[in-house]
Design a protein that fits this description.
Length: 231
């Protein structure tokens, strides 16, 4: 059995370019699908957030239209409600990376607000990357990679191939013209090699011990890649 750390956003909003606070948090499928896969494989999960706040689910991620209908929406909601670890997070500031065998960051727009500028998370990402342990990040959570700056000022993930929520997807979601910045663009500016797939289709990129997924539909295949590395 391995111990897997879920690092999740601690905010319930995303500040747009005009100062509006868009209600958000984490995206349900991106936490639920990997959680179910990891638990089914017998692994232990610990959730950490900045300050240890209970993470907020993006209500939009519980809607029938993004869960294949009402039955799917009811299932993801019920599963989320049953996950004790999400209701009892530890403080990200207290995490010792040596205690975990893998680290996973689910997305949602929340990480664009807090983890993108969180130095504690940035250091955890660098330590995990350098350790060789599986590090998995999906959808908007690669925003957290932007805070992973080494002492020389370079981004620790520069030169790595990643999948992340694309500018095209952000446009189709209706936020590209409202956002302060776009994830794909900012990652490329940091020297990260974004490998964009078709909008909304599963796309998982594995580069050394880094496993990244483009969007919600990439979360289950991403979890499968993590399990391969833990086997």
């Amino acid at each position: 059995m391995s111990k897997i750390l879920f690092v999740m956003t601690g905010v319930d909003h995303w500040t747009l370019a005009d100062g509006t606070k868009h209600p958000t948090g984490f995206w349900a499928e991106e936490a639920v699908a990997p959680y179910e896969a990891f638990k089914a494989a017998g692994h232990e999960i610990v959730v950490a957030t900045p300050g240890g706040v209970v993470p907020t689910v993006d209500r939009g991620s519980l809607a029938p239209e993004v869960n294949g209908g009402q039955e799917g929406a009811d299932k993801v909601t019920a599963t989320l409600d049953s996950i004790a670890e999400i209701k009892n997070p530890i403080r990200l500031e207290d995490v010792n990376p040596d205690d975990y065998d893998a680290v996973f960051y689910p997305g949602g727009h929340g990480p664009m607000e807090d983890l993108a500028v969180d130095a504690t998370s940035g250091k955890l990402l660098i330590d995990t990357l350098d350790s060789g342990k599986p590090l998995a990040v999906v959808c908007h959570a690669p925003a957290a990679l932007l805070a992973a700056t080494r002492a020389d000022g370079t981004n620790a993930f520069a030169g790595y191939r990643v999948a992340a929520f694309t500018d095209a997807e952000e446009a189709q979601a209706g936020f590209a013209d409202k956002a302060k910045w776009l994830l794909e663009t900012r990652l490329v500016e940091a020297g990260v090699e974004v490998r964009a797939g078709e909008p909304w289709a599963p796309n998982v990129v594995v580069d050394r011990n880094l496993i990244t997924g483009q969007n919600p539909s990439s979360s289950a295949p991403l979890a499968a890649e993590v399990l391969k590395k833990l086997a």
